[in-house]
Amino acid sequence: MGAFRFPRAARMLKPGDFARLRQGSRRIGSRYFSAEYRTTADTAARLGLAVSRRVSKLAVQRNRLKRLVRESFRRHRAQFPAVDILVIARSAAVTTSGAELLADLELLWSKLPPPQR
């Protein structure tokens, strides 16, 4: 069960982390989310989230999207390469069911490069 936790080390928290990611990142996208990722020298993947007020004025809706992304990331984190990922929500995600959003995130995760062995 410890592999499915979402520890502080798995989160991008500092502005410098986001700035480094934006400099040399690659982009991937799906219907409800887009993402920027960058390979790192760390041992595990880290997640950053961007759900702006442009997506929804209601904090409840923005927080729902963030919870869904964190949960999906937490479940798949062990399969990811050592990357920093910034997930950006699109406006259409607000009115979509949770199951459809999770399926869309599965598609997004599948577009990440495979882990190096």
Automatic annotation (TrEMBL):
Gene3D superfamilies listed in its UniProt record: 3.30.230.10
The entry's keywords: Endonuclease, Hydrolase, Nuclease, RNA-binding, tRNA processing
Pfam families membership: Ribonuclease_P (PF00825)
Catalysed reaction equations from the record: Endonucleolytic cleavage of RNA, removing 5'-extranucleotides from tRNA precursor
Enzyme kind, highest EC tier: hydrolase
One function term, GO molecular function aspect: ribonuclease P activity
Enzyme Commission number(s): 3.1.26.5
Similarity field: Belongs to the RnpA family.
Protein task: RNaseP catalyzes the removal of the 5'-leader sequence from pre-tRNA to produce the mature 5'-terminus. It can also cleave other RNA substrates such as 4.5S RNA. The protein component plays an auxiliary but essential role in vivo by binding to the 5'-leader sequence and broadening the substrate specificity of the ribozyme.
Subunit description: Consists of a catalytic RNA component (M1 or rnpB) and a protein subunit.
Protein name from the UniProt record: Ribonuclease P protein component
